[in-house]
Design goal:
This protein is 46% helix and 19% strand. A three-stranded antiparallel sheet has the order 1-3-2. By secondary structure, the protein is α+β, with helices and mostly antiparallel strands. It has helices at residues 2-23, 38-45, 57-68, and strands at 36-37, 72-77, 80-88. The chain is built from three helices and three strands; from the N terminus they run αβααββ.
Length: 91
């Protein structure tokens, strides 16, 4: 069972690195940028699964793991508080 946990953990780390690498070239995702929404980051990273009821959860979960790691921050704008944007922290 441990081999699956190790392989799964490695895959998650690769996905986190992929999302960070996909965000880096985008000026809006810089530590001083306005940020991008989950769906925009999903598109840039090529992680859309095209599932009717479950789309966007993979990228959302990866972004929140990166927030926990201190590598991404979530920003909520007064004009659209339910649609957060994400940017790199510079860490």
């Amino acid at each position: 069972m441990q081999q699956y946990e190790t392989a799964g953990s490695a895959l998650i780390e690769r996905l986190k690195t992929h999302v960070i690498d996909s965000m880096k070239p985008n000026e809006e995702c810089s530590p001083t940028g306005r940020g991008l929404g989950n769906i925009d980051i999903e598109t840039v990273a090529g992680l859309a699964l095209n599932l009717d009821a479950q789309d966007h959860y993979l990228t959302y979960s990866i972004l929140h793991a990166l927030i926990r790691d201190g590598r991404v921050e979530q920003m909520r704008w007064p004009v659209a508080p339910k649609r957060p944007k994400y940017r790199l922290t510079g860490a």
